[in-house]
Amino acid sequence: MNNQVTIASPLTDSNSLPWRSLKEIACGSALVVAPHPDDETLGCGGAIALLRSLNLMVRVLVISNGTLSHANSQKFPAPALQALRESETLSALSVLGVEANAVTFLRLQDGSISAQYKGAVTTCVTYLSEIAPRMIFLPWRYDPHPDHRATWKLIHTALSDSRLSPQLIEYPIWDWDPEQRGSLPESLEVTSWRLDISGVVQLKQRAIAAYRSQTTDLIDDDPEGFRLTPEMLLNFTRSWEVYLEAKI
């Protein structure tokens, strides 16, 4: 029996979260880690654009190949879908001011990052040691999606092995869905806040639109294919983003 005491997620009342300015968080070069192609833009598109507006280096590491979004498509079998999703990522990030040479695709199999993360730790340690980011944006550790939780674990493990200690900022994705959102352990020390992205929100919206495979009927031969609903997209196209910082 689980007697762990829990508390409500900060996203339950996100409109009341305090504000932080970019100057408060910008401490140097940044790395944005995305479990799937599009998570970096959905969760952090505004922050990316703001950081680039200050001419700060922003790199992006995409962990999975994203090929489960339309697994039954005949028009876009896995290799073609991977290429499409990577091209969408590069297009979206170009809108936000990130050049293609700052984007790395790890290409783990979508849907099973947890089964592959041990083998990817060494790769990530080498990558992190080479770029030595001052701050890392990574998925919220309690995100309902297992690939997102596994991505957090992968980066946390790689950081421990690399002995780097950048500022860690976590971003929610599927927690925005009230039906999937869970409660948090009472023992968790977490600080939640909002970043004003009103000055770049139109750029972010354009970047999201670059992901046509995820937001339109571009791939129309898979009835079970994934598509972000208008309701879900509203959480990412507003004039602010939510971030969380928690002690390990």
From TrEMBL:
InterPro entries hit by this protein: GlcNAc_PI_deacetylase-related, LmbE-like_dom_sf
Listed GO MF terms: hydrolase activity, acting on carbon-nitrogen (but not peptide) bonds, in linear amides
Matches recorded under Pfam families: PIG-L
PANTHER family linked to this entry: BLR3841 PROTEIN, N-ACETYLGLUCOSAMINYL-PHOSPHATIDYLINOSITOL DE-N-ACETYLASE-RELATED
Name under which the protein is recorded: PIG-L family deacetylase
Organism: Brasilonema sennae CENA114
